[in-house]
Specification:
Layout: E1 3-6, H1 16-20, E2 26-32, E3 38-42, H2 53-57, E4 63-66
């Protein structure tokens, strides 16, 4: 099952990934990270296709896409 991880300390909250995700599975957090940025969060992993559009749009290289979930 595809999924993504978002490095909460690398993300600066630009929101480009939220626009890029065709399934709208990435949104902005309601609380800031340690640097004060409202960062991207991933929800609905069962719907993720692993298309990597979110990672391609991320200027901070904060998103990693995995085609399979490891145990």
């Amino acid at each position: 099952m595809p999924h993504i991880t978002i490095d909460q300390e690398r993300c600066k909250g630009c929101g480009l990934c939220t626009i890029a995700c065709p399934k709208k599975l990435v949104s902005m957090s309601e609380s800031p990270n340690s640097l004060g940025f409202y960062v991207a969060v991933f929800s609905g992993p069962e719907q993720c296709t692993g298309c990597a559009m979110c990672a391609e749009m991320c200027p901070d290289v904060a998103i990693a896409v995995f085609k399979e979930r490891t145990p």
